[in-house]
Amino acid sequence: MNKNNNLPIIYSLRNCPFAMRARIAIYKSQQPVLLRDIVLKDKPTEMLVVSPKGTVPVLITPNGTVIEESFEVMLWALSMSDPDDLLRSGDDEMLASMQTLIYRFDNEFKRCLENYKCAKRYSETNIIECRQACEVYIAQLEQLLTAHQYLLADRESLADIALLPFIRQFARVERQWYLQAPYPHVRQWLNRYLQSKMFSKVMTKHQLWLPNRSDLLFGG
Fold it and tell me: Cis peptide before 165, with omega less than 30 degrees from 0?
């Protein structure tokens, strides 16, 4: 159980892209939390009591507030502390641009990506069409990265870390195709993250919270 009531708790799944980006934001915020790694086939009762929908991430603040959406967890973490100014404080136009891009990828690209992954997994005949649907969005990122080192500027923002886990998934569907695809700037951007200390820390494999219910300090 939580032995430090002053720290937030986050239920997470190591390879879930939504949980991944929540952990990235927490890492970037340098805010300590108690990490509880789980598997979806064995969801702890403690999590289901506060979040019956049973998906991750789920963050519980010290005052008992439950945050169930990854984007909201990211905003919570960076509102607590944002040493790299990923939210671009004071620049409402930039924040609006970030939110627009994230919304498009969360609500449009993600559906195309799921179709693409399924087509590959089940050897469906429409895999090229599914990939091409994703490429509409990847091409947009390639264009943005032609102009900047990061998606919206020459320094990273909330948009970069919000999209990162999903672009990583896209790159893994047809690895050989991706490596020769006409998106060199996307590859460079993604590789920079995948080879970073941050990503290594965020993706460290921890002992599952069940059955011993031992909390792990993460971030900070």
Answer: no
Question: Which position has the token pair 């973490």?
Answer: 77
- Calpha distance 22→100 (Å, rounded): 18
Q: What percent of the chain has pLDDT over 90?
A: 96
Low-confidence ranges of the chain (pLDDT < 70): 1-5
> What is the amino acid identity at position 39?
V
How confident is the model over 128-149, as pLDDT tens digits?
Answer: 999 999 999 999 999 999 999 9
* Mean pLDDT of the residues in the chain: 96
Task: State the pLDDT at residue 143.
Answer: 98
* Sign of the four-CA dihedral 69, 197, 139, 179: negative
Task: Enumerate the H helices of the chain as residue ranges.
Answer: 17-29, 45-50, 70-80, 92-104, 110-121, 127-147, 158-173, 175-180, 184-194, 197-202
User: What are the residues facing 58 on neighbouring strands?
Assistant: 11
164 to each of 10, 22, 192, 205, how far by Cα in Å? 20, 11, 11, 19
